[in-house]
TrEMBL record, chain B:
Protein name: Unannotated protein
Domain ABC transporter: 35-272
Short name of one Pfam family: ABC_tran
Annotated coiled-coil segments of the chain: none
Alphabetical list of SMART domains matching this protein: AAA
A GO term, aspect molecular function: ATP hydrolysis activity
Gene3D superfamilies reported in the protein's UniProt record: P-loop containing nucleotide triphosphate hydrolases
């Protein structure tokens, strides 16, 4: 044994217990965390955006009505994004949420129109249906049978889209319920529209679940290190299945809100939502690799895109501009993330490898 | 030999000890082993990873398992911790035979394993990792976070582990700190048997010393410790006995004070194999 090691051993043995730097904190290193958090940077960006629009569109932007409108128009994306956050945290992805959302609006229409199920019951059943569909298709195939999430959700996306076309024949179906539009969609409780209240409630439940429950911890553990989670006795397949189930339920909830805006089930209702949700979740700091991220980040990500879209629309820029700017911001966020984590020096900006390397 | 060992494991504790006594002149140890493996076989296709391997680990003792690459050390660890199922052979904990070992069952029966890759979740904080398999809960579903922070801090402090906080993610720790957290997690489980696979493989001198210090503390507390290691320096400084494996079989078991490094090396390389008897010493 080297003398170094022997000396070190002796030192350790003598002073291990009473060393002053053994003092262990049970508090998080808070400033470090806040400064390096993606939630912080996107929040700053959101505030800057708000300030910018508030200054440039003083009359129209920062009004109560516009803010309410912004929240209502964000609520569908918000609900879907919350579900997607669970899936990303568990280390997966769900391409099928948009198609599932469209499918569930037809389930709602069928329950109400054909079976005359009371609307509130039909809505509850639709959410349960969405959850079960996600749990039993994506969840089972990915969680239990260990198939690739990209292939499985690509398949179920195509399947759900096919089913929607089969059911609808490409047509929009009016949902025969005045309550859905008048009360659910446009009703207010203490001045806040019901869809916004629903979003806030789902946000609170999701955030609480992830932070304080055993299931929330399992989600992070499975996404962070599936093998370690399994060795610790966590039921990995069940956790993954539940995550996809939640994504399905949230997509169905989003579908309900979207259907309630127009009072109809439509085949194109979830067409762009999946990519928007992915953008919101990722910009909110949830990692594609799984195991890290938060519902708060997702909420801020959704608000960010909501504000961007609202402000640009008010300034006269169409959706084509919103999409272009949104795309740049997503790539920029990825870059910022890399710089924040590894520093500027980690960026290799050469497009072609230097010739000298090969020779 | 395998049959005899199997029969010994199936019999009552008293008979078991008598049989072991007959087989080995050195063993005048009347204690029941905390963990005993007898006649273990494990095959992967045509590769025989374990061939009639036996092992005894006693309370208050550090048993080192050494051997070259491909000696079957990791397979033995995974079999003992319940990750692999043995093709033949018996594992018993505190004299009780285990029919079908799995990691959760072995954990409940009193065996904690520190795997070579540590099995920590990098994105979760130290305390959550330490309570990963044994969370403190309220009403069965809510995590008792502050109790876990305190418990984790107490355990780490007790072991003299240096960390800034129990609430920083594992991903921000050094290799030695991670190793310490993984061991502390096993300590927290307060199991009588501790199994460590290559605990010093990725560590520097100071960190290795810290692990050694922790293991000595646990040994003093009467834990049965099994350490799989490449590091003969570490083994000779810390272990009480050493079991040498070669090509899936037990090449010899020695008491550290009665052997030399040269002898152990010749057992590892196969130059010497005088007591290839299945291992109980």
């Amino acid at each position: 044994m080297s003398n170094d090691l022997e000396n070190a051993l002796a030192t350790e043995a003598a002073g291990a217990g009473d060393s002053p730097d053994v003092a262990l904190s049970t508090r998080p290193p808070i400033w470090n965390r806040v400064l390096h958090s993606r939630v912080t940077s996107i929040s700053v960006l959101l505030i800057l955006l708000l300030v910018f629009f508030a200054i440039t569109q003083r009359e129209t932007f920062l009004t109560f009505d516009n803010m309410v409108l912004l929240l209502i128009s964000s609520s569908v994306l918000f609900l879907v994004s919350i579900g997607l956050t669970f899936v990303l945290l568990v280390g997966g992805f769900d391409l099928s949420i948009g198609a599932l959302m469209a499918l569930t609006t037809f389930i709602l229409a069928w329950l109400v129109n054909q079976l005359s199920v009371p609307i509130v019951v039909a809505m509850a059943l639709t959410i349960i249906f969405g959850g079960l569909l996600g749990f039993l298709t994506n969840g089972f195939l990915i969680g239990r049978l260990k198939l690739s999430f990209m292939v499985v959700t690509l398949g179920t996306m195509t399947l759900f889209m096919g089913l929607v076309k089969l059911i609808s024949g490409g047509q929009t179906i009016v949902i025969k319920s005045t309550w859905l539009v008048d009360t659910f969609s446009f009703g207010k409780v203490v001045g806040i529209p019901i869809p916004v209240l629903c979003s806030i409630a789902v946000f609170a439940i999701a955030a609480f679940t992830l932070r304080y429950t055993l299931f929330g911890r399992d989600i992070y553990a499975v996404g962070g290190n599936q093998k370690a989670a399994r060795l610790s006795g966590i039921n990995v397949s069940r956790t993954v299945m539940l995550a996809y189930g939640l994504a399905g339920a949230c997509a169905a909830f989003g579908g309900l809100v979207a259907a309630s805006r127009t009072g109809s089930a439509g085949p194109t209702i979830g067409d762009t939502i999946m990519l928007q949700a992915a953008a919101a979740v990722l910009i909110g700091g949830t990692s594609l690799r799984g195991g890290s991220g938060s519902i708060l980040g997702t909420a801020i990500g959704v608000l960010f895109f909501g504000v961007l879209s609202n402000g640009l629309t008010a300034a006269g820029f169409g959706t084509q501009w919103q999409q272009t700017i949104g795309g740049i911001i997503i790539v920029g966020a990825a870059l910022a993330d890399k710089v924040q984590r590894d520093g500027w020096a980690s960026l290799d900006l050469r497009i072609f490898t230097a010739r000298s390397r090969r020779t | 030999m395998a049959e005899e060992a199997k029969w010994a494991a199936d019999s009552s504790g008293a008979l078991e000890v008598t049989l072991v006594d007959e087989r080995s002149e050195e063993l005048a140890n009347p204690r029941t082993p905390a963990l005993r493996v007898t006649g273990a076989w494990k095959l992967f296709g045509h590769v025989t990873a374990l061939a009639d391997v036996s092992l005894d680990a006693y309370p208050g003792e550090i048993l080192a398992v050494v051997g070259d690459n491909g000696a079957g050390k990791s397979t033995l660890v995974k079999s003992m911790s319940g990750v692999y199922r043995l093709d033949r052979g018996q594992i018993s904990v505190d004299g009780r035979d285990i029919a079908r070992a799995d990691p959760r069952l072995m954990g409940r029966l009193g065996l904690s394993t520190v795997f070579q890759d540590l099995a920590l979740v990098e994105t979760l904080d130290v305390a959550t990792n330490m309570y990963l398999g044994q969370p403190l809960l309220r009403w069965g579903i809510l995590q008792q976070k502050s109790a876990m922070w305190d418990g984790a801090a107490d355990t780490l402090r007790d072991l003299g582990v240096r960390l800034p906080s129990v609430r920083i993610p594992i991903g921000e720790l050094s290799g030695g700190q991670r190793q310490s957290v993984a061991i502390a997690r096993a300590v927290l489980a307060n199991n009588p048997i501790l199994l460590l696979d290559e605990p010093t493989a990725a560590l520097g001198v100071r960190e290795t010393a810290q692990v050694a210090n922790i293991l000595q503390q646990l040994r003093a507390r009467g834990k049965a410790i099994i350490v799989v290691s490449h590091d003969l320096e570490f083994v000779f400084h810390n272990a009480d006995r050493v079991q040498v494996m070669r090509l899936g079989a037990v090449q010899g078991v020695r008491s550290i004070k009665d052997t030399t490094r040269e002898e152990v090396i010749s057992l590892i390389t196969g130059l010497k194999s005088d007591d290839n008897d299945g291992g109980a010493s």
